[in-house]
Specification:
single chain; alpha/beta; 6-stranded parallel β-sheet; 21 helices; 30 strands; 23% strand; globular; binds adenosine-5'-diphosphate; binds zinc ion
């Protein structure tokens, strides 16, 4: 029980102006009864209307003349479960990442929204096994792929969630209705709340853990049994059986009466992965993802809080599902950039999971084929316990990797985007009817449009970025959606030679059409997948071998298993080395390793071609050899030399203003204020690399320091400075250990 005569309270009004704690006197009637995180009612404002608020601090230090303070009215019995835990977590976020308390609270508290009663449907199989198999054969012959997908799942499972089929396997409702009319299945509705995903299965075929897997499980669970709570890192190549270990650990922790959070990046939350969890844990597991409405999300939180589920699977926000008996957090693909929030508070799920695990007495297990430097550094220094798995369990051997020097290719007269080596191998694969993935390592999408006479580049009038060329002579801004037609003449010099710089996935698709006419090509990039569900659709169609070649960006290399793929071509491996932020080598290494991991997942061995202008760069050399350890040593030496995380810490301060001059002045003042601390390395202010987005000007300052605490102090100093100089029309945001450049 917290001691003190005064309570600092955050009022539950979403208005920036009241976004600070207000102090109240604790009346004798409530003395000793208030706790941090409690929801209370207090009189607020001129009319002293009763409002709800959260207690964030209890203190004896009075901030105003005590006789002017109002008193806490009452403890709110039915307030949303604020929950001490959530408030503690929010307070930690506020102090660690620099956000307002209300923003932090809103991040961690599930938003309560009125919910329409909803029903979830499921599919029950009515046909016997024999009949199913013959129907499956027929569907295969007739190339009815959607039907085939449903039937082959039904062979394994007599009962399937409707949503999982329509959303993840992309089966149309019409296809399901036709199966129902045939009497093969029955579609049943059941109340949603009770059970969003239910798979009744007693027939999960269990793998017997390999000795390496069993060792990890036994070590972690026996430490758990002894009351040891810590962070573990499993470094294991793709296909080495990490997920199987997670399942075993979760099982062990559930058997001890505890609950688990399983974090998976949204893009890797595929049907196959979910199914493995549903099969093992049945209706004790649920999933949270971005396609849930606020109501559905709230509902999952309610179920968790009431103890109706024990496992939640989801991306970073799944951390905020309130489990009373949290025992384990697992974080797969720990190195993924999507684990960091892009809005304030810019929290990192790994650090947040560590804090949460500490607070709840839970263990944390991180897993990755290519751990982040942060995690591996901690493992090497003994703060995390490290395990490694370096054998693929399904037999498939690691692919053979070729590196092609594009400079030589050009010197020898090949101007195509495909090297001769790659063309030969592709030819061979198409001939043998094996599948190919072509991966374009590019963070922008299509090419920019420029004048070949004067160099003028077409830019967005609202954002400081070049416009991207699209089919049909359109140019699009990927930041604000601005669209315009491509001019016939250069706006600067009137030359007709205004052309697109061809390097996007669309252009590759075009070139493929010319070089390999007849090959069936699928393309996946942010443009194609903006439409809902098209992502899964493309993947399942490629999986079903409805195409020979899949062309795409980053998103095709994440955790998908295509047994038919025996060749992966990486078209311009070093493009991501030009990102000019300190993480670009790490990102390149991770992408190349992951892309290479896509080849040869089936029976036939795979090959990988890495095309690059910088064949000697260590990230490419090490990715070719699949040597994580050597990469880590080199990269860590660089970070230490340059004082970058994890060798030191960094704070990015982003200053945004509608008036360029005002933004610049504020940035300058903040830099001056920062430089008062002589120990702090201050870089900037400068214009952000994208100096304007949506007509808002952006400036950035970077600070480097060995101690995180010193950076938090710097942030506090800026907040105090801004509070004492009110009335500016600037928005200042903080990003600790940023993962992207501003
Ligand atoms: P990762 O998560 O490291 O990519 P998975 O757990 O998905 O690895 O395992 C890769 C493949 O190996 C899967 O098809 C899985 O069913 C299989 N597998 C995992 N563990 C075993 C085991 N102990 N015995 C046989 N197969 C296994
Ligand atoms: Zn021109
Ligand atoms: Zn724009």
């Amino acid at each position: 029980m917290a001691q003190g005569r005064y309570a600092n309270i955050i009022i539950d009004i979403s208005h920036e102006k009241v976004d600070r704690p207000f102090q109240y006197k604790i009346p004798d009637s409530l003395a000793g009864m208030l706790e941090i995180g409690m929801c209370v009612t207090v009189p607020f404002g001129m009319g002293s209307r009763l409002r709800q608020g959260y207690v964030v601090e209890i203190t004896d230090q009075v901030q105003y003349p005590a006789d002017k303070l109002k008193e806490v009215h009452a403890i709110e019995k039915n307030g949303p479960f604020a929950e001490q835990d959530a408030v503690r977590l929010a307070a930690w976020m506020k102090s660690t990442y620099g956000a307002t308390m209300i923003a932090a609270l809103k991040t961690v508290l599930p938003v309560k929204k009125a919910m329409k009663p909803r029903q979830k449907k499921k599919i029950l199989c009515l046909a016997g096994r024999e009949e199913l198999l013959s129907l499956l054969g027929e569907a295969q012959r007739k190339k009815q792929h959607a039907k085939e997908r449903v039937l082959s799942q039904l062979v394994k499972e007599p009962e399937l969630p409707y949503e999982l089929l329509t959303k993840k396997l992309n089966v149309s409702p019409a296809a399901l209705r036709s199966l129902e009319e045939q009497g093969v299945i029955r579609i049943e509705a059941e109340s949603y709340y009770r059970n969003p995903v239910k798979i009744v299965s007693e027939r999960e075929v269990r793998n017997c853990l390999s000795p390496e897997q069993a060792f990890i499980r036994d070590e972690i669970l026996s430490e758990y049994e002894q009351g040891v709570r810590r962070t573990y890192l499993i470094r294991g190549i793709t296909g080495s059986g990490k997920t199987e270990v997670y399942l075993a650990l979760i099982e062990g922790v559930l058997a001890r009466g505890k609950q688990c959070i399983m974090l998976i990046p949204e893009i890797a939350l595929t049907y196959q992965t979910l199914l493995r969890f549903y099969k093992r844990f049945g209706d004790r597991v649920s999933v949270i993802n971005s396609s849930l409405s606020a109501g559905e999300r709230f509902d999952q939180c309610e179920r968790a809080r009431k103890g109706e589920i024990d496992v939640i699977i989801g991306p970073r926000s799944a951390l905020f599902v309130p489990f009373e008996r949290l025992g384990l957090i697992v974080m797969d693909e720990e190195h993924e950039g999507s684990y960091k929030s892009e809005t304030m508070p810019r929290y990192h799920a790994r650090e947040t999971a560590e804090f949460l695990a500490g607070m709840k007495g839970a263990s944390l297990v991180l897993g990755s084929a290519t751990p982040s430097l942060e995690a591996y550094h901690k493992a090497k220094s003994g703060r995390y316990r490290l395990f490694t798995l370096d054998r693929r369990l399904t037999g498939g051997s690691l692919p053979e990797v070729h590196v092609v020097d594009l400079r030589r290719e050009l010197k020898e007269g090949n101007r195509s985007i495909f090297s001769r080596r790659l063309q030969d191998l592709m030819e061979e694969r198409l001939h043998r009817e094996e599948q190919i993935i072509l991966f374009l390592n590019r963070r922008g999408y299509a090419g920019f449009v420029s004048c070949r006479s004067c160099g003028y580049v077409m830019k967005c009038p609202h954002c400081d970025v070049s416009l991207s060329q699209h089919m049909g002579g359109k140019m699009v801004c990927h930041y604000c959606g601005y669209e315009t037609v491509q001019p016939k003449k250069c706006p600067a010099c009137a030359s007709p030679y205004i052309l697109g710089f061809k390097a996007g996935t669309q252009q590759i698709e075009e070139q493929l059409g010319r070089r390999f006419p007849g090959a069936r090509v699928l393309r996946m990039d942010a443009d194609v997948t903006r439409k809902k569900d098209s992502y899964e659709k493309i993947l399942s169609s490629f999986f079903d071998r409805e195409a020979d070649i899949l062309v795409g960006t980053q998103m095709i290399v994440k955790g998908h298993d295509f047994p038919g793929v025996t060749l992966v071509g990486i078209l311009a491996a070093d493009l991501s080395l030009n990102d000019s932020d300190y993480r670009c080598a790490e990102r390149t290494f991770q992408l190349l390793t992951q892309a290479a991991g896509r080849a040869g997942r089936g029976e036939r061995p795979g090959e990988v071609v890495i095309q690059t202008y910088r064949p000697d760069h260590y990230s490419i050399v090490r990715a070719r050899a699949q040597d994580y350890e050597a990469f880590y040593e080199e990269e860590m030496a660089y970070r230490e030399l340059a004082g970058y995380p994890p060798a030191a810490h960094m704070l990015a301060i982003l200053i945004m203003a509608a008036q360029e001059r005002e933004g610049g002045v504020t940035a300058q003042e903040i830099a001056t204020c920062l430089k008062e601390d002589k120990e702090l390395a201050v870089i900037g202010p400068s214009k952000a690399s994208i100096g304007k987005i949506n007509d808002i000007y952006r400036f950035v300052i970077y600070c480097k320091q060995e101690s995180y605490g010193a950076l938090v102090e710097a942030k506090d100093r800026i907040e105090r400075f801004l509070a004492s100089n009110p009335g500016r029309e600037t928005n200042v945001q903080f990003d600790f250990d940023p993962i992207d450049r501003y």
